[in-house]
Fold:
Amino acid sequence: MIEMLIYITLVAGILITATSFAWSIIDSRTKAHAAQEIQQNGRLIINKIVNETRSALNINAPVIGASGSQLSLESSDGATDPIIFNLTGQDLTIQRGAGSAINLNSDRVLVTGLVFENLSLFNNKSRDVNLTLTLEHLNPDNRQSWEYSETFRATIELRGI
Amino acid sequence: MSNNIKINQKGQSLIELLVAMGIFALVISSIMFLTLDAHMANRQGGERSEAAWLAQSGIEAAQSIKNRGWKYLETGNHGLIINNNRWEFAGAEDNFDKYSRQISVEPVYRDVSGDITETGGQIDFDTKKVVADVAWDFSPARPSEVVIGSIFTNWRSHKWIQTSQAEFDQGAMSNIVSTSEGEGAVELVQGVAQYWGNQFLIESFGTAGNLSRRERQVAMTFTAQNTGPVSEISAYIEEERGNSPVYRYGLQSDASGIPSGNWLGLMGLGYGDLQATTSGWQMISLSENVNLTAGQIYHLVVQWQSGTVNNNNYISLRSSRPQNNMAPYDNTNDPYLTVHWNNGSRWINSLLEPIFVIIYSDKTFKGNTYTENPETPIYRDLLAGQEFLVPGGDREVSGISFYTKKNTNRDPADDLYVILYDITSGSQIDQGTLATADTISRNYEWRSYDFPAPVTLIDGYQYRIYLSSPGSDDRDYYLIYQLRNEDSIEFNSVNYLADTSVFSDSRNGGTSWDAYRNSDVGGYRFSSSTGYALSGDFISGSFDTGSDETVYNYFDWTSDVPAGASLSFQVRTANRRNTLGSAVWVGPDGTPGSFYSTQGQVITNDPAAAGLLWVQYRAYFTSDGSSTPKLFDSTIDYEP
Structure:
């Protein structure tokens, strides 16, 4: 009888520990998944903006010295001119010429901050955009494990002539 | 038997359970370790990714700075800042959250094939290596770093190059000639007389202007001879009229040749106030020490501070003529040495010789202390001249000149003779006629005598060079100036070569001599015509860069500068060709007191320049006479 009681106690302890550990693993995995999602989105968006901006001919908006949530670039290809990055709701879109706006972020990621600063010189010797982008993972149930946000910064000097 | 077996099987389940728990713990530990490691790897990946973006942004910002002008990509370690809506370097690093970022700009060297090399090679002023280093602590024990680099080139720039003799000939030359050596070159002329002796002259004293109104100011402008803190200054009051008010005496920096209006010193207290009660030297202690830099231009400014000032109550400062543009102590050239006067509306250059003393905190005196210039007659047994030690090596001289005249329109009864005497050996070296009675003027002028053969004055020996006219009398005779200061150790340390060269006279035909440590002959000079000119300057032709927004990047040249010689440069710019002539020559710090002396130095424009469209440079040559610097080509790199 005593042996049975000890047995039951130990098994119960093991089961409780195992269950708690399993939950912790799942929670951690969820958090890691959210971080990866944000970072992958951030890398994709920044890469896209950097590549398009570097090869652009000029910056239409914001004007020199100004900042805003929309970046309009003069493209060397008439069919894709202008290229516009814009904050629509909590989505960052790209629109080439007359084409439709396409979301750059996934539907599980929200764009909660986007600032383009035009740091170009008035003599056009330097045409430069400074970008600050904040992404946040979708979390409608306010679960702590899905709570993750990150700010990305980039400076891009135009190379297009 | 069977009972015994049953007894031994008791507790077996518990043992199995313990073994199972051990295995379970082992498995759990492994899973925990893997999970934690995966989490850390994930976090590190994210942080490394962010650091890489910051580093790449740093490179892009440096690219923006470079596009503004190659000159702004300064070699060194920098942080970045957005200022005036543009990227600029500021500090040694900048920080984002836990990341610190440093941008290093390094010179690039190329080998003979033109390939970039890490060791040796020649510096390429048109290429720089830019490295962005982002560092952070992943954990206190695990510092992390992302480093990326890029090579930048100065592909946008233009170059104004002068290299042929024809191009050099478009410039103006003073003691300079152009030659066809190489593709073309400019160098010091040969055969120009070089002078050594006290050439500092004083023909008259006068006032530097009456400070009889509140708004009036006088400034003694000079180039600092020493680097160091100054604790006191001194000026000589020509007239202290009535009950003069309190004046402020202090040091100000230079603003394109005139006082800046700002008192120097860390707290701006580089001045002292004084109410003079008598004329003569006034010593003023500064409220705080002022650090002077050798070669920089400064102004000793005097202005009204408090009290009643009018035509009956004021001071005026003493100055002398002519303006010598040289320091009395060693005759060092100082083109900025002058007196400026401000009547309340603007500063003007009075073209006078300032009389002042700068006293460094180590009690070194600098300035001009000559306040008297009695004329010394030469006739019968009255002889006068200069006793001197030969410093810094033997000197070969071919002639001697004195600044002299006769006292009346009549001719003295005898000619004027010059004698060179070796005091150390006790022997006369030479005697000759400096001027004949019928050719000498009644006005002071330089009169010369050439030795029959060059004379070597030996290092460390003491000599006397003096004048005599034994047949002349006290009615018609010859005169020289004796420049004199108050007789004190400190003031004597400022006059010509201090105690190593002094005025000397005899009243008994040379039987005995008196030496005066507070006096010098004003002037006398030995000449030598065997070598190159000791100094000269070349002003280039002017160049239109095509834009009034031109960024001037750097100044480069090819030269041969032997030991004992120097070559330095200044640059000036203007909006029109005809205003270039009145623009101020400035060096790498944008002031007239600095000079480009290292190839590839960044060009800094005069902030007060009228424009940037036209540019011109000036090359300053100096030599010890035995050789000359040679300028083979010059390059001004610019971006219109």
Observations:
- Residues 571 and 617 of chain B are 4 Å apart (CA to CA).
